[in-house]
UniProtKB/TrEMBL annotation:
The lineage of its organism: Bacteria, Bacillati, Cyanobacteriota, Cyanophyceae, Nostocales. This is Sensor histidine kinase KdpD. PANTHER family: SENSOR PROTEIN KDPD. GO terms for cellular component: cytoplasm; plasma membrane. Keywords: Kinase, Transferase, Two-component regulatory system. InterPro entries: Histidine_kinase_KdpD (IPR052023), P-loop_NTPase (IPR027417), Rossmann-like_a/b/a_fold (IPR014729), Sig_transdc_His_kinase_KdpD_N (IPR003852), UspA (IPR006016). Residues 232-345 form the UspA domain. Residues 5-214 form the Signal transduction histidine kinase osmosensitive K+ channel sensor N-terminal domain. The keyword Kinase applies. It holds the Pfam family KdpD. It comes from Amazonocrinis nigriterrae CENA67. GO terms for molecular function: phosphorelay sensor kinase activity.
Amino acid sequence: MYPVRRGKHKIFIGMAPGVGKTFRMLEEGHALKHEGFDVVIGLLETHGRKETEEKAEGLEIVPRKQVLRGGLTLTEMDTDAILKRSPQLVLIDELAHTNIPGSPREKRYEDVEIVLTAGIDVYSTMNVQHLESLNDLVARITGVVVRERVPDRILEEADEVVVIDVTPETLQERLLEGKIYAPEKIQQALDNFFQRRNLIALRELALREVADNIEENAIATTLNGQYCNIHERVLVCVSTYPNSLQLLRRGARLANYMNAPLYTLFVANPERFLTKEESLHIHTCEKLCKEFDGTFLRVTTHDIAQAIAETAEKYRITQIVIGESQRSRWQILLKGSLTQKLVRLLKNIDIHIIASEKTSSSKR
């Protein structure tokens, strides 16, 4: 008997409620049903939205399980019924949902994992603020501590992640038109979570999260190492020369402009001890790097160019900042310049050569 293949998981993610994640999931469910696939709705939360309710028409819905709690009859997704029905694809809303106490599993994403293990494909939805690693950041942005969270691994292990993107203005219009919340909740939502600045920040988080996911998948599936970096990453190469602080400041400005992480590299010669003054200079570089929220790296080797190239590959650097050569023309003629060696070693990386006492830079 052959082992059951794990189902494929596609997640529709958005910046906030009302962007259209569930609607899009239902659209794709209808399209696959039209192609002959066996598609059912495992759990749908319409929140009273008329368009969503209408979009669900024509798709089979697995009845919810009824649970008696404290004299109340509550409903929950019936995972066992989904497994028994065994469709090709099941649509499951609100991945971050917490199940009723006493349920076999605490969280809905755990039910989804059971369904996937049974070989059933799953389409699911979630908002970016429910991602575990972003919890503290979302709280700082919005002032709201999100209680229901999904581990990052769920997003990382998904076969496909689709961001459902609308502008903050469009989302606010939908809110005012009563397409997201009931009329009595609209103003409160606009004054709090749905403030424009919050939506802009959450939108960037959602787009960046999916970009990260795409980049990591590209790296994992590329055999020859030739992949496309989606995010910029800046590396500043410092030395014992006095212009290193100038290079660092230039690199920090570049990183800030590109909204990119900053790395600083010092390559130490294994056969040469630094003087007290030189050690202090490198320490100052490290301190300045950390003030810019950068990462300071130190490598000991004779081959400076190779060390830079290996660091660039390891940290997926896209921009390198170096100083102009301090060697004489005769030395460069005999041994070649660092820039020339880097150009030979590096592909698809911009090299910024900063003149010692000038503000101009050139790209090569």
